[in-house]
Amino acid sequence: MSKRQSIPERLGHDFLRALYHMIHTIRMYQDNNQLVRTSVSSFQNILHQLTAGGDISIVLYRSRFHLGGEKLPYRRETAVVVYNMAEFFSKRGIGSVNFLASSRDALPENIISFTRLFNDAIKYENPHQWLEQKLSEQEFTWVEISPKQDNDTTYLSESIEDNRYEKAKRMYFHAIETVKEVANKASHGMVGLRKSRRLAQNIVELIQEDEALMIGLTTLKDYDDYTYSHSVNVTLLATCLGRHIELSDLSLEHLTICGLFHDLGKVDLPKEILLKSGALTDKEWDLMKAHPFMGVRKILMLNATPSLRSRIILGPFEHHLNPDMTGYPRTLFIGHLSLIGKILRIADVYEVLTAQRGYRPISLTPDEVLRKMWGEAGKSFDTILLKRFIHMMGIYPIGSFVELSDGSIGLVMDYPDETERALPLILRLVNDETGSWQSGDLIYLADQIIKDDTDRLNIVRVIPQTKLRINPSDFFLHLK
Ligand SMILES: [Fe+2]
Ligand SMILES: [Fe+2]
Predict the structure, then answer these.
(1) Bigger pLDDT: 158 or 448?
(2) What tens digit of pLDDT does each residue of 198-228 get?
(3) How far is the CA of 248 from the centre of ligand 2 (A)?
(4) Ligand 2 centre and the CA of 395: distance in Å?
(5) Alpha-carbon distance 112 to 39, whole Å?
């Protein structure tokens, strides 16, 4: 392959988006429709720019597109387009489309005919073969297609997919191990904070890159001991909230460490108390109420600079205190809660109420949890922060299962548009023949707005997780 100038990332995404819109409008309307004309002309416009340096190939490899030999990086705004285009190529057994430089001279009618053939190929037993034959019969000299070949890495600059899910999973499990290590060793005075700080920086970075995935990860509730996964989940939720109120990177790092360490004091509590399903006795309750204080004792034993230590003590101490200073531990020394304390309080309660544990089956769906919390705004939670938290999680919080108007079931994955918190990106789930749920297509509800009322999809209701017996985190991590 000849060396060509690398393609600007935005142009690559615009090209894929234009191709996607063109395919869809051509499928829905006739050739002379104005929408078809516009979509073809936008496509040609970008094709013109791309082929200025010669032929341009678009290759699907391991669910990712490569344009001119370079992988198109993941971008949240185009995730739906990429996903659906990957499906479109895969279902037709097509691995790549090569637009030759001569495609610059193709007439709009030619582009439309090619797109119709590409669309129709799905009706035939061997779509790729059928399409190839049609292209040669009708003398399409400006475009070439190749079958899907996932094992062929020769034409790619990169053979190993750097997987964002792998990165997220590694971080999550590393965080669990770190909290565990600190919890078990802190009392012996052997633990420094270098590792935790590096982890915190990594978490902050991942949240800045891929917030929805991080929120999705917090649906992982039963990895290892609940106290550890709870601590990591609270950390992720709290740091996401910190990002939404535009805390500096350094403050986010401190907030992350506070999240990881907020329940260190629980680790030494007897399991019978932590897992008790009935009411605690007075003595047990006294022990429970001491855990923020015990946690701070551990933090004080860490080998950290006095300035860092002073920044990570208050939050864990305050995380069960309410803005009106009720809650525990009772204290006369503090007049009002710190920002980190208030953030942790919100993340902590949301996490606990959405978790299912053996002794306490989930009774509330995530949106009901938010409503319940909103009922306590001002009393148990800082009102402004809680409002920001609810906005961040969306009307149907990320990780909720929903029933759609066509009767299918979906999982809320993201709210790609910051200003539109009622129209999520939904992964439709399909029940395979063994009765287990698998990933289906991705639907962005904001795209549904343009459709007429009859075939427009919307959310009918939220479904309790216990009803489906599936773990949302499997889908966020692409395990299904
Ligand atoms: Fe706690
Ligand atoms: Fe907690």
Answers:
(1) 448
(2) 999 999 999 998 899 999 999 988 766 888 9
(3) 24
(4) 24
(5) 10
Please check whether residues 415 and 295 belong to one and the same domain. Answer: no
Is the pLDDT confidence value at 451 over 80?
no
Q: Which of 358, 393, 428 is the C-terminal boundary of a domain?
A: 393
Least Cα distance to 232 among 243, 296, 298, 224 occurs for 224
* Pairing mode of beta strands 459-463, 401-404: antiparallel
- The ligand placed nearest to the CA atom of residue 230 is 2
Last residue of a domain, one of 393, 418, 448: 393
86 plus 129 within the same structural domain: yes
**Percent of the chain residues past pLDDT 90, beyond the cut:** 52
Is residue 212 domain-shared with residue 350, that is, in the same domain? Answer: yes
Tens digits of per-residue pLDDT, 329-364? 988 777 789 999 999 999 999 999 998 765 566 678
Predicted pLDDT of residue 2:
42
Distance 388 CA to ligand 1 centre (A): 22
Co-location of 389 and 423 in the same domain:
no
Whether 264 and 312 have beta carbons less than 8 Å apart is answered as no
Ligand 2 centroid–CA 262 distance in Å is: 6
Residue 293 CA to ligand 2 center (angstroms) comes to 13
Residues 229 and 94 in one domain: no
Residues whose CB is under 5 A from ligand 2 (ion)?
A: 263, 348
Model confidence pLDDT, tens digit, residues 90-149 = 888 899 999 999 999 999 999 999 999 999 998 888 999 999 999 999 989 999 999 887
Identify whether residues 230 and 185 lie together within a single domain: yes
Give the span between the Cα atoms of 15 and 24, in whole angstroms.
14
Q: What is the mean pLDDT of the chain?
A: 87
Structure tokens at 286: 């006294």
Number of the ligand closest to the Cα of 232: 2
- Identify the CA nearest to 174 among candidates 226, 228, 122, 130: 228
Question: Radius of gyration (Cα) for the chain, nearest Å?
Answer: 26
Q: Provide CB contacts within 8 A for 260, sequence distance 6+.
A: 175, 178, 179, 182, 196, 199, 200, 231, 232, 235
């516009």: which residue's tokens? 38
CA of 415 to the centre of ligand 1 (A): 29
Whole-model pTM over 0.90 = no
Ligand 1 centre distance from Cα of residue 177 (Å): 19
**Number of domains composing the chain:** 3
Residue 425 backbone phi and psi in degrees, to 5: -90, 125
Q: Which residues contact 379 (CB under 8 A, 6 or more apart)?
A: 322, 323, 324
